[in-house]
Write a structure and sequence with these properties.
Strand order of the largest sheet of chain A: 4-6-5-1-7
Structural class of chain A: alpha+beta
CATH class of the largest domain in chain A: Alpha Beta
CATH topology of the largest domain in chain A: Enterococcus faecalis V583 fold
Distance between the termini of chain A: 20 Å
Radius of gyration of chain A: 20 Å
Oligomer: homodimer
Number of strands of chain A: 15
Helix content of chain A: 25-40%
CATH architecture of the largest domain in chain A: Alpha-Beta Complex
Chain lengths: 416, 416
């Protein structure tokens, strides 16, 4: 085994040893001081306002109004253009958010600790489906919901977690894979399981019955409620894989709606980028491919972990939602991903494949050698600001990210 | 198509058209007047006390004490022997209960209406796992839990259902099959889904927060909570299939721990019986095959509907729990059951088999012709009274039931 293979084996071992646990809820300003009264976090690698796509711009404007940085969406846009409002990549803050991934200082975040390595990762709360900020919507109902999440849901959930104690997420994710979730576009089971963990303590700590009813209804009505928690768990799992010398394993994949970026272990926090591709999938009634924005969000951290598109075989019911043809095609995706990874997961297994682990630890060498690209299940946002979700589909990570990363890796290894 | 095939096609059509809906909660004495202050309902075809197995006797004694028919278990046994306490088959009351299936007048029942045909079916509440009456346990904690279900859980759930309105069960069952349940030994997803339906209205109608916390914790902590509801839905679905002239489809399969009984459509409520077989499966730590009672319970109504063992391919995670070897074996069971049924379900499909319906409408002619027996996933009770569950496994319906039914059917058809 050469030094690269040894380093990659260490990466997979760290992934397998990870123990992501939900420990608390914090406000973004508490955990990421860089998120001050004029700074907004966004999904994907760093990007300038003028390069942002429509839904990302729409979300930035909405987030600025939500946070009180501007009174109107127009004022928000002006302030970003003049530099009065700053933009920062979530990953650099230890955070992740799906789609546009907006994070501002007043937003509550799930705090997930990797008990094995002691590191923390954070994600926003999931807003539900339809017109929501993560898909670029920014109307009054979007901001009202975010404010309710900040002022009612978060403080009660914080108390509930304090009452219940830390909630291990690995077991929930493993159970959900046996219940038809793939953990990216389908989190129905995981959302039910985390609601089951949270509701009894929430009942215990909540005196206001009307608040309790809205909170339980909100959590139960949101089939993607768990996605953001899964993303924080995935980031908490992948961060200790960073900076292993000679390691060619991908530690993050993320998209800002314009560019797709990856990080690899040996090269720390350097992004290797290429233009995002357009997902292929199914559109909600009234929308078509010409309405859709290309691939976006920090949520590809799920595929970085080895679930989502990688575990599609576990979720036959998601197949039609993302536009795949048959259960056989889903099995094929899950098998094919094994060709570009270091190995398979000990924790996340696919029962229908006789409990084989999901393909884990994407090796950029294998991606470039085989030409097989990581497959990602994703939501699709409308390309105009303020509209929201228009469908869901399957997209590939662009090859150029891996080629650029491999050149840089080879150079660092002295073999170019 | 001959008259039998036509009748059987009608049976399958009625199964497909069924719309089982949870409409209310009633006490057993209200809906089954035969359950008076000295009568106990039990699972399976009718049986005398002296022929009952250990766990069924244990449950009868416990039920008698719970209902106040006797002060002690010993007194209860005496009163049954002398005829002061009477025994009656649940199916004759329009009810079903898993394992021992005890029903007495004070017990709350789920009321399920088949909206298409207007008929009702009832089942008890699931008590959870471990030491519970359905597995023959009868200690003080068993009776205390039943009393709490009667006096706290049931009245609140009744109010919650009245507030929420009727809850369609078919969609929950169909969803659960896409979430890794087979609906007999694994109801994790369905239990989560029904809890999600019931909890928000329960929050709305419950003033006592301590009661609310115990109720939510109880529902959420019981991964088989939905089983009994599924059984009532299955009975409500199968009852309109009864009494179709020339129809050789099985409308009920049930076991009293001593005998296995089936009913077929053309012959109404006549039971065709044979001794129950011993399940093969996995035992909880400390138990082995020599501790187990043979097959028991009304829950084979699930396989009568075409789920449970018939839909094992939908539930790869249950495979190991019931002792099957591999995911491939589960697929094989689900495919094999198609050989003994009229067709496949339009409502209950198996995503991993490319959304084929589960095998539905067991035709006794095909069972006898092929020698393929219905496969049933089942829990296993300790053979002594008062102990409880010792494992779970797979069991076959005994061939003699089908041979006896086929003789009687042939005679009725004038072809013997």
């Amino acid at each position: 085994m050469n030094r690269i293979d040894q380093a990659n084996a260490e990466a997979l071992a760290r992934m397998n040893r990870a123990e992501p646990v939900l420990v608390d809820i914090k406000y973004a300003g508490e955990v990421a001081p860089e998120l001050d009264e004029r700074t907004i976090g966004h999904a994907g690698p760093p990007i300038r306002w003028e390069d942002m796509c429509g839904p990302m711009k729409g979300a930035v404007m909405g987030a600025a109004v939500y946070e009180g940085m501007a009174q109107t969406l127009e004022e928000a846009a002006e302030k970003v253009q003049t530099g009065a409002i700053r933009l920062v990549s979530n990953h650099s803050l230890g955070c992740v958010g799906p789609m546009t991934g907006m994070i501002t200082r007043s937003m509550p975040l799930w705090e997930v600790k990797n008990e094995t390595f002691g590191n923390y990762a954070y994600s926003t709360f999931n807003e539900g489906l339809g017109k929501v900020m993560r898909f670029g919507a920014n109307g009054p109902e979007v901001l009202e919901r975010l404010k309710w999440m900040e002022t009612v849901l978060a403080p009660h959930l914080k108390k509930a977690i304090a009452h219940a104690g830390p909630i291990p997420l690995k077991v929930i994710m493993a159970k959900a894979l046996a219940m038809g979730d793939e953990m990216h576009q389908r989190n129905i089971a995981a959302s039910a399981l985390i609601a089951q963990e949270l509701i009894p303590p929430l009942v215990h700590v909540t005196e206001d019955r009307a608040a309790l009813e809205r909170m339980t209804t909100f959590m139960i009505g949101n089939v993607q409620f768990f996605l953001n928690l899964a993303m924080a768990a995935a980031k908490a799992t992948m961060d200790p894989v960073k900076n292993i010398p000679h390691c060619s394993v991908v530690t993050a994949m993320s998209r800002n709606g314009t560019n797709f970026g990856i990080k690899i272990s040996a090269l720390g926090d350097e992004w290797f980028e290429a233009p995002v591709l357009m997902p292929k999938g199914l559109y909600f009634p009234g929308y078509s491919e010409k309405d859709a924005n290309p691939d976006m969000g920090d949520s590809a951290i799920m595929e970085t972990l080895g679930v989502g598109g990688f575990s599609m075989a576990a979720a036959p019911a998601v197949i039609r939602f993302v536009g795949a043809a048959s259960a056989g095609e889903a099995l094929e995706y899950s098998r094919e991903m094994q060709e570009i990874t270091v190995g398979t997961s000990e924790s996340y297994v696919i029962p229908i494949m006789d409990f084989v682990g999901t393909a884990s630890g994407i090796d950029i060498r294998k991606v470039v050698e085989t030409g097989i690209l990581p497959v990602i299940n994703t939501g699709m946002a409308h390309k105009e600001p303020g509209v929201g979700q228009v469908g869901a589909g399957i997209v590939k990570a662009p090859m150029d990210c891996f080629i650029k990363a491999l050149y840089a890796f080879a150079h660092a290894e002295g073999v170019d």
